[in-house]
Amino acid sequence: xxxxxxxxxxxxxxxxxxxxxxxxxxxxxxxxxxxxxxxxxxxxxxxxxxxxxxxxxxxxxxxxxxxxxxxxxxxxxxxxxxxxxxxxxxxxxxxxxxxxxxxxxxxxxxxxxxxxxxxxxxxxxxxxxxxxxxxxxxxxxxxxxxxxxxxxxxxxxxxxxxxxxxxxxxxxxxxxxxxxxxxxxxxxxxxxxxxxxxxxxxxxxxxxxxxxxxxxxxxxxxxxxxxxxxxxxxxxxxxxxxxxxxxxxxxxxxxxxxxxxxxxxxxxxxxxxxxxxxxxxxxxxxxxxxxxxxxxxxxxxxxxxxxxxxxxxxxxxxxxxxxxxxxxxxxxxxxxxxxxxxxxxxxxxxxxxxxxxxxxxxxxxxxxxxxxxxxxxxxxxxxxxxxxxxxx
Length: 392
What we know:
It is built from 10 helices and 21 strands. The protein is α+β, with helices and mostly antiparallel strands. A hairpin with a 4-residue loop joins strand 8 (122-124) and strand 9 (129-131).
């Protein structure tokens, strides 16, 4: 983010803090609770938003060296993601070409070869079939046609993108749009190192997980003993970028900005940017760490999902440094807040939605990100948008 834009956002946060006036969506919208419970809708969403849509699967720091790999099983297609010997990011269907067995079962690591646990067919990090036991017994094969099935994969702005279908189209710049792509280009996401990852199985729809990142109205109540110590609630900046958006939360440290010239202002000191990337990603960069949250629907149950929360660290801090331990612990604490506070509320929402007792929920004027979440989902499926009910 350019410094002039940072200054503009910090001035806006200060003005809203002083005036008590928050970002305003212009009215309220009513969202049917069936958005979180309808089984037919869940099937369509999984197909259109996950199984056949490009996915952001991590950051460059997930694959720091040649031979690094990670796997992912939250989509319809099992993924094997590697840093090839040439340094290129590549993605493959994690399935042996012999009988379709999943080849690599570890979540991440470093290997030169990937061997199938069924018959030991072996592949290198470029996906080529390089080992076939008893090949003279097996029969004549064209090994060039039996490498791992490759998937479209692109590394851009330090982010890793994959299309889960071999014939899928993948253009991150087109997905992000010019303005957001330019914003990401200035963040140096590619220099971040992977710190760790937590996975939470939660009894709520994946969109309810996204909803919890859509406003700070709840901070003084739900997070009174945690995030509210560091952030003002109900004060934010908000910008839309087509299917995506960005909130900037207001840190209590912003009071320090009043004593400093704008030339010294830094958005990560006085605010916290929270990017939503359609359909299921929250990307949250701070001064020292970055949080990547991805929500994946359960294969069959609309009222369940898996959240993957990955943590990344700015370079220059060694793993044997006390600061590293502090930031690692702080990152885990942030994940715990999401799990133990936000997602507890999301599961509570799911119970009432699933009961059928409530036909709709309300998105307030001070919750524009929630308006945008759901109208974006609806538009992507060709559904009518939620109408705005303007303030009287």
